[in-house]
User: What shape does this take?
Amino acid sequence: MTKQQIRLCERLQRLGFTAGTQMKLYGEVFDFLSEPIVLTDDVVLVDAREKKSGQTRRVRVPLLIIHMANRSSIAA
Assistant: This one.
């Protein structure tokens, strides 16, 4: 990972995208099972379990949140 991607990952973790947290995305509540997985500067995934069904899957972090995290990491 590049330094920029590492900073992005750290910022997303501070926003709650980290193992052991719960968040509502795409109309579903998810329990996160992993730290963010940065594939590219615009594609970040998190392993998560759907609260309702118990199904485990990889959930894409919304692009708007990625852009927000990138902007705040540049300012820091």
